[in-house]
């Protein structure tokens, strides 16, 4: 028997890593089908675009596949060029990430140390605490709006401001927020930015901004606030979640800092080509936006017609459903019926389920399964 150290490796990991709880993704479709012996299951658990990407994306992927023996363009020149035109910014303001998740982690790595803190809201996107905790910085979680607030469960910007001090290097704002679907009006955000000290970087996470119409005009604020970073993604409305590509828009100086620590080839060549093709087809995105509005209305009406169940209004491609009772047994019953949604007990919302707006068939399957589940589960 070798001299086994039963404390290895956990007690030898960095202290910040020892306390981490890994991210729990939505259950994959084939896993459910394998485990429960069912077919044609429906996944409404990860806020993916049910229609997939623009057909142009598949042509671009096929063409890009011919050169996968070569390293990708580490600078992402072509995509940045297209994005800069689309967004009306300079290429130097852009940072590409392996999903916008990558960007959130890079921001934490650039700005956070054990001597600093980061501020975010209760019920905010779960990647914020993960990214912060891995750096040993203090995570300041600010209580969300109370139930009597029109944006109940949403970010309380005044309370967030009050939590910021001279050691606060990052504040994360998700607009709209996942999993609550709550949002912030541009006036309120602008007033917030005016009051945040210039030594605190404001990370404005706009993963769902394409769903809420014209966007929030946040890019126009970048010239006034060098401490603002806006993050966006190709994972949601653009339908490229599986390829992992997102981006940040910031001052060129901040982008240059992110560029120092990112992996030299953090975006693969297929993703670069696919994102460029997806971006070009804005009429497809417009159709997805419209389909999502209809799906949200359909889901909201269907869920609301069930007694004792409530929907939180959403500006994303998902709704948070308040079951008014423990959600986990209902989640399990839905799994048995072949419908995967997202339990959010890990967010401190044990009575809620997050449901992605799917296709008409998927949404109907969910509503049917939910009604049946609520009759059976007490
Ligand atoms: C989905 C999501 C993201 C980004 O995911 P990526 O796939 O890593 O781009 C970022 N923020 C929020 C709030 C999200 O819901």
Q: Can you put this structure into words, describing what you see?
A:
The N and C termini lie far apart (53 Å). The chain has 2 domains: 13-43 and 283-376, Aspartate Aminotransferase, domain 1 (Alpha-Beta Complex), CATH 3.90.1150.10; 55-281, Type I PLP-dependent aspartate aminotransferase-like (Major domain) (Aspartate Aminotransferase, domain 2), CATH 3.40.640.10. The model has no long low-confidence stretch (mean pLDDT 95). The chain has helices at 15-18, 29-36, 55-65, 77-87, 100-111, 127-133, 157-163, 186-195, 252-261, 269-280, 282-304, 328-336, 360-376, and strands at residues 42-43, 94-97, 117-121, 138-142, 168-174, 201-205, 228-233, 246-249, 310-312, 318-322, 339-340, 342-344, 349-356. Helix 4 runs parallel beside helix 10 (269-280), helix 5 (100-111) runs parallel beside helix 6 and helix 11 (282-304) packs parallel to helix 13. It has 378 residues and is α/β, with parallel strands linked by helices. The structure holds pyridoxal-5'-phosphate (PLP). Pyridoxal-5'-phosphate (PLP) binds at residues 47, 99-101, 125, 174, 178, 205, 207, 233, 235-236, 241, 246.
């Amino acid at each position: 028997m070798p001299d086994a150290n039963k404390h290895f490796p956990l007690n030898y990991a960095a202290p910040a890593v020892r306390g981490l709880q890994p991210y729990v993704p939505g259950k994959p479709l084939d896993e459910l089908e394998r485990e429960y012996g069912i077919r044609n299951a429906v996944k409404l658990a990860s806020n993916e675009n049910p229609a997939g990407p623009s057909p142009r994306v598949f042509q671009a992927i096929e063409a890009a596949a011919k050169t996968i023996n070569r390293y990708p363009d580490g600078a992402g020149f072509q995509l940045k060029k297209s994005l800069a035109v689309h967004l009306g910014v300079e290429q130097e303001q852009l940072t590409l990430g392996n999903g916008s998740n990558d960007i959130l982690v890079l921001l934490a790595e650039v700005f956070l140390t054990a001597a600093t803190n980061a501020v975010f809201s209760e019920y905010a996107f779960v990647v914020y605490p993960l990214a912060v905790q891995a750096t040993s910085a203090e995570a300041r979680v600010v209580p969300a709006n109370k139930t009597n607030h029109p944006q109940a469960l949403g970010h309380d910007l005044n309370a967030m401001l009050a939590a910021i001090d001279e050691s606060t290097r990052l504040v994360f704002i998700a607009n709209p927020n996942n999993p609550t679907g709550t949002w912030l009006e541009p006036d309120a955000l602008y007033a917030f930015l005016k009051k945040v000290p210039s030594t605190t970087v404001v990370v404005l996470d706009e993963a769902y901004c394409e769903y809420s119409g014209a966007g929030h005009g946040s890019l126009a604020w970048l010239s006034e606030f060098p401490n603002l970073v806006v993050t966006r993604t190709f994972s949601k409305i653009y339908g490229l979640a599986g390829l992992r590509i997102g981006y940040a828009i910031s001052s060129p100086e901040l982008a240059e800092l992110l560029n120092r620590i990112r992996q030299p080839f953090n975006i693969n060549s297929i993703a670069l080509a696919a994102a460029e093709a997806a971006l070009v087809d804005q009429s497809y995105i417009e159709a997805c936006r419209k389909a999502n509005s209809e799906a949200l209305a359909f889901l909201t009406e269907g869920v609301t017609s069930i007694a004792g169940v409530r929907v939180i209004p959403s500006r994303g491609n998902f709704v948070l459903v308040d079951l008014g009772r423990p959600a986990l047994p209902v989640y399990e019953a839905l799994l048995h019926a072949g419908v995967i949604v997202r339990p959010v007990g890990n967010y401190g919302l044990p009575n809620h389920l997050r449901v992605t707006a799917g296709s008409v068939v998927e949404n109907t399957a969910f509503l049917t399964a939910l009604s049946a589940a609520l009759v059976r589960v007490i």
